[in-house]
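Quick board copy: two proteins, each given as sequence then tokens.
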Amino acid sequence: MSEPQPTSRRTGRWIDHWEPEDPGFWAATGRRVATRNLILSIVVEHLGFTVWLLWSAIVVLLPRAGFPFTVDQLFWLVAVPNLVGATLRLPYTFAVSAFGGRNWNVASALLLLVPVGLLAWMVSDPHTPYWMFLVAAATAGLGGGNFASSMANVSYFYPERRKGFALGVNAAGGNLGVAVVQLVVPFVAVSGLVNAGLVWIAPIVVAAVCAYFLMDNLAVAKTDFSTQSRAFRRKHTWVMSFLYIGTFGSFIGYSAAFPLLVKATFPESGATYSAFLGALVGSLARPVGGWLADRRGGARVTAWSFAVMAVGVLGALAGLRQHSFPLFLGAFALLFVASGLGNGSTYRMIPAIFTAQAEREAAEGATRADAGLRARREAAAAIGIASAVGAFGGFLIPRGFAMSLGQTGSVDLALYLFLGGYVVFLATNWWFYRRRVLLARVPSLAHGRI
């Protein structure tokens, strides 16, 4: 075992020496520093998700507040933040390598003041035109970008053996922002809808200040775009991005649409207040998915997740046919849990895949250190790319429900399309990561690490 080396710091809270794979280094200093940065990363990312999904809780309150928008217009207000957030995830991913993880956490936290301020302004006047609401909702996408930069940054702090759990906890803490905003907004809005935006200003400022004084930048994460851009040329980057549409896209899409979906399909239930439960159980399931992937293999857990999501869709269809809200709610709870497990397992697969690639390159002549560093950098980029592509599912699902309602008067058609999608995702996962021929060809896969 090599002797642990102290972290080497310079101005601006930069750490020049970072070797989490060295057990001595990790025990002496690495774990403590990584834990501190993880906690603060969770706080900033949590607020990012809160702001990103703010409109999912607002739209069900707008008609009562005097804004006569149609159901289709309301679905656009919950879909647009997801479209913008998905698009912003790519530049946010590479912002970590350009500016440093700590520096970008501070900046991305302060940017959240824009959407909450605009929301408070929009709802203060019932004569505000719809297009201004769309603009304000679009800026909420700034919160969606936080996830990509946070996950890419955290991936550098942790050793390979702990990444599944660390990434799962980081993501779960962020995802919980969806449940929190859907729980809190109905209560604070009682005293005025404007408070649904203003209530987040103080937490955002506190988070930015804490990130400034307590987080660190890692020199190992700072690299030029051309180095990270190799991830764009890796086949598995795009395969995993596609699978992530099915896992995270489902979670964020259902989270955004569920309050409005309940109001549209079971208006007599008056149960839109319970919508936060879906995002809550999905968020809590995410680190479990990472933990299971560490032990049972990410591809296997991902396969289970898609199979269970298909069952959840069938349950939701049965609930609609019987007009049984308990059955419908239970089916969506199953969907949320399965998508949360799949989020954790798919994200665990990405660093494992790139580590396997590094092992092959080392066997072909590259030094193990160089191959390992390149793998970490490409994996961080792939994580951001997958998070961006996957988040587009958060746009497609609300729009799918809206179009189905508009054309058929029910959401059955959308659910059947989603069911077909899960079959395709399941087949893709099997083809690339579960076939015996591939397991025999890639030792790291055969050993269950992916």
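And the next:
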Amino acid sequence: MSVLVASDLDRTLVYSAAALGLTMPDTQAPRLLCVETYRQRPLSYLTETAAVLLAQLARTARFVPATTRTREQYARIRLPGPVPEYAVCANGGELLVHGEPDPAWRAGVNGALAEGCAPLAEMRARLLHGADPSWLLKERTADGLFAYLVVDRERLPAAWLAELVHWAGERGWKVSLQGRKVYAVPRPLTKSAAVAEVVRRTGATRLLAAGDSLLDAELLLAADQGWRPGHGELAATGWTAPRVTALETGGVLAGEEILRSFLAAARRDVTSKGH
């Protein structure tokens, strides 16, 4: 397959109940398919139409999930269609091949992080130093690569976040606010680098991508064609780029529109090569 489709998952293709963003009457709402359970409860969804589109896409192009989720978190997702041969987890820190982590890739990532930015322990300490129990709900590290907080977003002080962005930037880290999570990620740790390795291994000649957050920006810039939904961190800042389509649609219906766009673009490429 000459077309490779790399897409963020959460709030791009799959959505929690809180992120569905449905504004129509209940009688007109789309039917939903649960694709993730956690502690025996449904957690994430896509529309049934999106499920059909994703299954069709997997037969037309090489589909590569590119997520900030850890391997454990990604393993909970059950997407329609065949299991992807490649998946990018931990924001590029882990490259899965047939579901198994590639140790050589992880070793290279560890080496880059050791040289290019402040250590995780220092970043984690800074995250907790100014955090207030009134808005801090949880604190986590991900696969020994980056850290994040789960927060009460309405109470999260904008000044605290701005100060963190500045402090982290001086030490080789970037900060991303996604829903209720504040991510602190080393700058060398990118989805785009891992996806570029998949492109190299597969010989793909065209890259399509989608994402909603600052952590997806490099991947979108690297793609031949990209899409971002009408919600999320990139939409809130008005971010766009020449080859990136900024959709107006938000919520779970944006995931459906992104998949429809992926499939149309992939089919055009197949048709053009057929001629």
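Board note added afterward: Residues 3-109+189-274 form a domain with the Rossmann fold fold (CATH 3.40.50.1000).
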